[in-house]
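Try this one yourself first.
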């Protein structure tokens, strides 16, 4: 008689658990969908929130944050976009809920037509994303980045020599630095890269196309994806795809040829070709991954160096502080090296403040919510495009009082140490944050150290020739601006020291 009881108990327990589960889910669904979206501007039922085509989207979104609060929702047709513009909210949503924000929004023009779904930066969460990201990490992680220090020093000294030869072209010199480093890391290219090389011109063209295609609202097909099936539509986008694919393959094929002749340098692409099976990537995917390194890593690093020069020229008092520190720690008989980094807090604070004051990617890169996120009573629905807007977050007045002021001192704690309690979002958020940040941080540091050290600032600070050139607040991609570079160290001595400084 007592036999069936355990079975009954088990069945009853199971049913009760299922019922409770269903109820909990329904309650959650009901609660979630009844929660409001974050506040935002009114929108048209069909067109959504109007974004003027000419607008600087990062500025526009930052204004919305000032008006509606730290998290704003806007409509893009029937889709929801969420703008995150304050530090706390970025931490709580982009970082802590990072698991639900690994995705990227569907970008028809940039992702599907131009990149044919092979660009890591735009790849959706899932198997392909994991394979690409794992492969990229092999050559971008901290340990690998450390091994690139000599080639970064070598190229940074060339920036100084180039500036001495042709100070007006300092923006091009920064570009050449960044491209040379990336081409060396990715393809083992050791021959010098000149700004006029057809290869460099082709790279800059690809970067330029990508920036154009990424600008929200630039291509109607992103609003109306069916357009891509209309014959003839998107011819220019297809052409851009063919151009970049050919360029990426050219680079890869050169490594293949060198491997066949037994003279390939150790580099990312050689590793990929030797380990293609392990990483399960097709030839096109490998070619694109190589391209992703300079697509994502060359212009960004160059802009970081340019912004530093811009910040220095505008703030002679900051130059003087760093100068004093360099005199004390490095002296004048040798050139700064990587090992000096931890002993140069003034320089570190200057770099942190430059990256805050003029973020390199003011709008950031959009993420996509893969499930509902509830934040302080608001709902970020699954499928929403989520922007962590760097320009707005770096202007959070609670974390960065008087945010427009360039003030490296804000990065020191009461004991004079660099603050570790403020997370910097320069390299993005959560699981999509920049895998190249170890390489990038080293590039920024060594160029800053060399530039400040070389241009003895106390007597001849780097100065803008036309201070009004900066007045409208350049962001992202500085226009050419003239800087007076007059090294105090005797030029001949400086050249000599640079020549002897780093040999690849
Ligand atoms: C100062 C220089 C750099 C800055 C400011 C920067 C910034 C960023 C940002 C903001 C993202 C998007 C993060 C997000 O979605 O939240 C990103 C992604 C990426 N960066 Fe960088 N980056 C820099 C240099 C580099 C370098 C040197 C490389 C490679 C050599 C690189 C490779 C990548 C790649 C492959 C991605 C795509 C990652 C993904 O979508 O999963 N970046 N970077």
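Now uncover the answer:
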């Amino acid at each position: 008689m007592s036999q069936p009881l355990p079975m009954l108990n088990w069945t009853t327990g199971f049913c009760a658990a299922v019922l409770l589960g269903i109820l909990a889910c329904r309650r959650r669904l009901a609660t979630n969908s009844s929660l409001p979206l974050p506040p935002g501007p009114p929108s048209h039922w069909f067109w959504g929130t109007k974004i003027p085509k000419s607008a600087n989207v990062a500025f526009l979104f930052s204004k919305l944050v000032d008006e509606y609060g730290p998290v704003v929702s806007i409509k893009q047709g029937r889709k929801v976009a969420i703008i995150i513009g304050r530090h706390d909210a970025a931490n709580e949503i982009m970082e802590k809920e990072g698991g639900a924000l690994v995705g990227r929004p569907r970008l028809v023009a940039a992702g599907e037509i131009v990149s044919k779904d092979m660009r890591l930066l735009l790849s959706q969460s899932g198997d392909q994303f994991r394979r690409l990201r794992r492969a990229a990490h092999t050559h971008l992680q901290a340990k690998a980045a450390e091994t690139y220090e000599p080639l970064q020093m070598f190229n940074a000294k060339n920036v100084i020599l180039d500036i001495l030869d042709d100070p007006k072209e300092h923006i091009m010199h920064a570009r050449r630095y960044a491209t040379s480093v990336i081409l060396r890391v990715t393809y083992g290219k050791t021959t010098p890269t000149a700004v006029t090389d057809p290869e460099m011109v082709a790279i800059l063209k690809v970067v330029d196309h990508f920036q154009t295609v990424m600008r929200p609202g630039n291509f109607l097909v992103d609003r109306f994806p069916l357009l891509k099936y209309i014959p003839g539509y998107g011819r220019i986008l297809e052409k851009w795809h063919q151009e970049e694919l050919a360029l990426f393959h050219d680079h890869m094929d050169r490594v293949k040829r060198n491997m066949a002749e037994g003279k390939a340098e150790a580099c990312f692409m050689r590793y990929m070709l030797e380990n293609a099976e392990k990483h399960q990537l097709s030839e096109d995917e490998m070619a694109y991954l190589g391209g992703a390194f300079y697509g994502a890593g060359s212009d960004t690093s160059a802009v970081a160096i340019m912004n530093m020069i811009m910040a220095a020229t505008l703030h002679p008092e900051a130059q003087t502080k760093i100068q004093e520190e360099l005199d004390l720690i490095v002296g004048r008989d040798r050139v700064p090296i990587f090992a000096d980094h931890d002993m140069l807090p003034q320089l570190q604070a200057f770099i942190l403040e430059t990256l805050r004051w003029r973020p390199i990617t003011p709008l950031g890169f959009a993420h996509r919510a893969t499930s509902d996120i509830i934040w302080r009573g608001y709902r970020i629905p699954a499928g929403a495009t989520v922007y962590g807007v760097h320009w707005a977050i770096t202007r959070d007045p609670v974390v960065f009082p008087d945010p427009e002021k360039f003030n490296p001192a804000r990065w020191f704690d009461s004991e004079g140490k660099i603050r570790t309690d403020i997370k910097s979002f320069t390299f993005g958020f959560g699981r999509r944050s920049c895998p190249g940040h170890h390489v990038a941080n080293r590039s920024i540091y060594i160029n800053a150290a060399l530039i400040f050290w070389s241009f003895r600032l106390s007597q001849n600070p780097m100065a803008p020739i036309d201070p009004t050139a900066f007045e409208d607040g350049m962001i992202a991609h500085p226009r050419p601006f003239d800087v007076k570079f007059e090294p105090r160290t005797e030029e001949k001595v400086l050249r000599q020291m640079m020549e002897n400084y780093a040999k690849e």
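Discussion: The pocket of protoporphyrin IX containing FE is lined by residues 120-121, 133, 136, 140, 182, 292-293, 296-297, 300-301, 304, 360-361, 364-365, 426-429, 432-436, 439-440 (CB under 6 Å). The longest helix spans residues 283-314.
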